[in-house]
Amino acid sequence: MTEKEIQVLEMIKKNPYLSQQDMAAQLNISRPTLANIISGLMKKGEIVGRAYILPEKDVIIVIGGANVDRKFHLNEAVQLGTSNPATTSISVGGVARNVAENLGRLSHSVKLITLMGKDQDATFIEETSGAYIDFELVDHLEEEKTGSYSAILDNEGELVLGLANMSIYNLLSPNVLRKHEIILLNSRCIIVDLNCPKETVEYLRDLAISRNILFTIVPVSSSKMKNMPNTLNGVSFFICNLDEAETYLNNRFEDMNDFMNAAQRLLEMGAENVVLTLGDKGVIVGSSLGIKHIEATKVNEVNDVTGAGDAFVGAMMHGVLVGELFEDAVRLGLYNASKTIESDYTVRTDLSIEELSNWRNS
Length: 362
Hints:
With 362 residues, the chain is α/β, with parallel strands linked by helices. The chain folds into two domains: 3-52, Arc Repressor Mutant, subunit A (Orthogonal Bundle), CATH 1.10.10; 60-66 and 95-143 and 167-361, UDP-N-acetylmuramoyl-L-alanine:D-glutamate ligase (3-Layer(aba) Sandwich), CATH 3.40.1190.20. The chain has helices spanning 3-14, 20-27, 31-43, 95-105, 120-129, 174-178, 181-185, 198-211, 242-249, 256-268, 308-321, 326-342, 353-361, and strands at residues 60-63, 67-74, 86-93, 110-113, 115-117, 139-141, 148-153, 159-165, 189-193, 214-218, 237-241, 273-277, 283-287, 290-294. The strands form three sheets. The chain has an eight-stranded mixed β-sheet, with helices on both faces. The chain has a four-stranded mixed β-sheet with strand order 3-2-7-8. The chain has a two-stranded parallel ribbon with strand order 5-6. Helix 9 packs across helix 10. Keywords: Kinase, Transferase. One of its GO terms (molecular function) is kinase activity.
């Protein structure tokens, strides 16, 4: 920015309602000159709208799924082809929403961009999550149903079958996001899950490149890998599990050496940082500093694995955003994932900055 543009921004920060005439007089320039400066600042995204509203600079934007999760916990070992006794629970979920809540509980300012229906599930999501996530950028569609996910979990808490009704996210196109482009351009970090169509992921990637914004891709499942961009150029962090990596790279990986090679291939495709999650075997991390294996944090008792991957992403990105070294941020993610597996909740309610600090210092 020019010196005059910086001066104008500082004046607006102090008094957003100052008239152009008063600003021009204080800067000793003509009013038309000031108008041109303000017009330029609006085009750059430094000012939003008339009243000189300054965009939020530290907000995290998360784009993707926000669902209602219905879980069926089997009382005994699964028996196919017959009725299985089970208990049921309902909660809010969706990869993007889960990541957003984890970050919100860690005191970050988080806005969610998604599509929902005008139904009870949408109301349930917003009322349940509103303390941690800003929903002002969400569009509600009259003819569509809010996304939902039903999980059948065995008597040890492992997933037997997952059923997803996510067709609404096919409508989450670049045109939906362009309405919020000024906010996106001024965000601190953009995180997208692969519920979004491929063209939307690529639009966000290109936008992040244009403003040097941290950009993170979080796959949802192997079937959603079709929504990945063809290259990972401009991707700051790519976080996936083994199945997703095998689908994307069209290869099988059997042992630790294979896992290391997979991370290397993802780096060669353009990602700045890669995390390949391996469940209880830990993670492979890769960056310009090299590739290494980090052990998983011990899980004392498996209660429910749902949300563990999203917990990892949320706490890892928290570490990145507060200035932790990449490997230390990954360890925060591993810890949060382990505690989420032990929890009854998709996003655990005892998560906080203080709790992470206590673990770090213990």
